[in-house]
């Protein structure tokens, strides 16, 4: 399994020492922010609690590790967790003094939040079925584990101009979304294709092919070379324009490619980077030929088999997809799921880019037993990867940047769509964000929303931008296109009418329908629902979902996703300026700081 490098373990004491200084008042919050954020600790909305973002490389996690995360959430927070679109698991509502307890407890299970935030190399995502997928060209989880262990061991990974996101896909189906990552590797016959310059946010982009084919042994050299170019030439001042894709846009692809090639030759000459890829998943025992999935006259079980159970490449084994609505889960539920290891010792779990969980390595004779246990543990677990499986960021519940409360709107949409014919709309997904940042992956959603605000009759009203047509396809990925905006209050009705229209009119390719007729239909619906009544006529328009008070932007705070060394330097400079002013006020001789 993935192992936390010793350097990361050694650095825990430094975090502990600085935390103690901060709690004693010896470190300013602005300075400590530059320390805690690269350790995966973000301030939640309101400033009283932290969120701990735990890395799960390639999304693979054992029953023991799942149990450990649940125990940490219960013992050091309030038990609330969230699965992210980058396969991380977040523990919410952590008190500052408990942040070190989570780090120290989970290190013994090879789980760490190191690099979970700030200007760092973030969790490296991968195909969530790596190691069990019948279609993969390479078992890429080994590459993800090895690359992660290398990168989080080097100082360069924690002092970048901006965050760097990497992904690895096991075949051209691109389940890891490499086309919208800063750096992506796609396993092809005999090697890996390299993409560079993708990313999602207020301004998204699709990566271009940097290398048509490299050997697996060259992955570390390629990653380090791209990082070196980014570190040398990236913009460290303008936080709204300092992602790798903006650097490439500014200097041009040809210049970037030239610099990368020069750096690659230099790194190959000066460094020795061999990733540890020998660790692998457990060897599965052979399943006897007479063991099979039990068939029962149970309608819910039939639905479960249809939507959740699939064949692994290992004969006689299945994987089971579990819908975790909006990625929200609690510690007691995780503890119960971890105990499924007592039913079958071969299983492990995977977090997915759609915020779900997968149970892998289930022998086919154990499927019904696992199903019976799942029913006791989870309420809404059916229909993963369907239109009912809506992605949502944490939005205005805990995020400092969240404008609208998307995670409270999402269940309203699901309820409206509960009677839709899922078979006719098998390619439709819905992605939601509370703001223009892309934590909910709205730039690649077939149907997507991002929160915003507009003034109506001099009052703030929550709105959403509506997008259509996103499609994942490595370097040929299509970004969703904005169609218009609508008030939040009408979104459930608007979306349900649009989806109903699709189910009645789609005959074949869903993307062709969206391009030819879907955008026109959505434009009509936006116009239909565009009128916002006055506050006196209907004040519900002026109240966001999940709230009781009038909508406002109170609670919005500064972004912390780019916090790091620059924040610490700015804090030191501010302290120096304040000391200078104080010295002048006291008529002391001072040397002016320019």
Detailed description of the structure:
This protein has 15 helices and 20 strands. With 594 residues, the chain is an alpha+beta fold. The strands form four sheets. Strands 1-2-5-4-13 form a five-stranded antiparallel sheet. The protein has a five-stranded antiparallel sheet with strand order 3-14-15-12-11. Strands 6-7-8-9-10 form a five-stranded mixed sheet, with helices on one face. Strand 14 and strand 15 form a beta hairpin. It starts with 5 loop residues before the first helix and ends in a 9-residue tail after the last helix. The C terminus is likely disordered.
Strand content: 15-25%
The largest sheet, given as strand count, sense and whether it forms a barrel, is: 5 strands, antiparallel
Give the mean pLDDT.
Answer: 93
The helix tally amounts to 15
By secondary-structure content and strand pairing, the structural class works out as alpha+beta
How is the largest sheet built, in terms of strand order? Answer: 1-2-5-4-13
Number of strands: 20
Span between termini: 51 Å
Radius of gyration: 24 Å
In terms of per-residue confidence, which ranges show pLDDT below 50 for 5 or more consecutive residues? Answer: 590-594
Helix content: 25-40%
Oligomeric composition of the shown chains? single chain
From the spread of the alpha carbons, the general shape counts as globular
């Amino acid at each position: 399994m993935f192992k936390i490098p010793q350097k990361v373990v050694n650095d825990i004491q430094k975090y502990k020492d600085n935390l103690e200084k901060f709690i004693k008042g010896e470190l300013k919050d602005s300075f400590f922010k530059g320390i805690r954020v690269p350790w995966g600790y973000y301030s939640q909305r309101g400033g009283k609690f932290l969120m701990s973002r735990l890395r799960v490389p390639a999304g693979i996690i054992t029953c023991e590790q799942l149990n450990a995360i649940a125990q940490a959430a219960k013992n050091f927070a309030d038990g609330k967790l969230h699965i992210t679109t980058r396969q991380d698991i977040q523990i919410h509502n952590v008190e500052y003094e408990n942040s070190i307890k989570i780090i120290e407890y989970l290190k013994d299970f090879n789980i760490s939040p190191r690099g979970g935030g700030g200007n760092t190399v973030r969790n490296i995502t991968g195909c969530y079925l790596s190691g069990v997928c019948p279609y993969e060209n390479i078992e890429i989880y080994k590459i993800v584990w090895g690359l992660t262990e290398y990168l989080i061991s080097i100082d360069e990974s924690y002092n970048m101009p901006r965050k760097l996101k990497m992904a690895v896909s096991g075949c051209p189906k691109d389940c890891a979304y490499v086309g919208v990552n800063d750096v992506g590797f796609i396993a092809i016959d005999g090697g890996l294709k390299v993409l560079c310059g993708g990313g999602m946010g207020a301004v998204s982009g699709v990566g271009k092919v940097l290398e048509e084919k490299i050997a697996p042994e060259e992955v570390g050299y390629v990653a380090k070379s791209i990082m070196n170019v980014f570190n040398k030439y990236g913009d460290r001042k303008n936080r709204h324009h300092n992602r790798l894709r903006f650097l490439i846009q500014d200097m041009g692809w040809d210049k970037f490619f030239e610099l990368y090639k020069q750096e690659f030759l230099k790194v190959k000459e000066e460094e020795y980077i061999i990733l540890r890829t020998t660790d692998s998943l457990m060897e599965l025992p052979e399943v006897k030929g007479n063991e099979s999935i039990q068939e029962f006259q149970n309608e819910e079980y039939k639905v479960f088999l249809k939507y959740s159970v699939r064949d692994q490449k290992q004969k006689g084994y299945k994987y089971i997809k579990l819908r975790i609505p909006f990625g929200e889960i609690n510690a007691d539920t995780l503890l119960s799921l971890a105990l499924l290891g007592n039913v079958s010792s071969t299983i492990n779990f995977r977090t997915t880019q759609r915020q779900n969980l997968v149970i892998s390595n289930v022998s086919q004779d154990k499927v019904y037993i696992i199903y019976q246990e799942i029913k006791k543990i989870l309420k809404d677990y059916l229909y993963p990867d369907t239109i009912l499986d809506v992605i949502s960021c944490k939005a205005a519940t805990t995020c400092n940047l969240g404008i609208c409360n998307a995670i409270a709107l999402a269940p309203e949409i699901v309820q409206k769509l509960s009677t839709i014919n899922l078979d006719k709309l098998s390619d439709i997904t819905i992605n939601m964000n509370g703001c223009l940042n892309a934590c909910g992956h709205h730039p690649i959603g077939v149907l997507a929303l991002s929160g915003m605000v507009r003034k109506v009759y001099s009052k703030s009203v929550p709105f959403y931008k509506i997008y259509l047509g996103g499609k994942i396809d490595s370097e040929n990925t299509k970004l969703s296109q904005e169609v218009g905006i609508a008030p939040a209050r009408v979104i459930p009705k608007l979306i349900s009418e649009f989806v109903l229209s699709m189910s009645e009119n789609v005959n074949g390719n869903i993307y062709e329908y969206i391009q030819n007729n879907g955008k026109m239909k959505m434009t009509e619906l936006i116009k239909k629902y565009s009128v916002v009544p006055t506050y006196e006529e209907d004040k519900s328009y002026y109240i966001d979902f999940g709230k009781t008070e009038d909508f406002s932007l109170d609670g919005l705070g500064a972004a912390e996703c780019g916090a790091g060394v620059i924040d610490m330097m700015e804090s030191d400079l501010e302290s120096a300026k304040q000391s200078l002013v104080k010295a002048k006020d006291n008529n002391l001789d001072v040397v002016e700081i320019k």
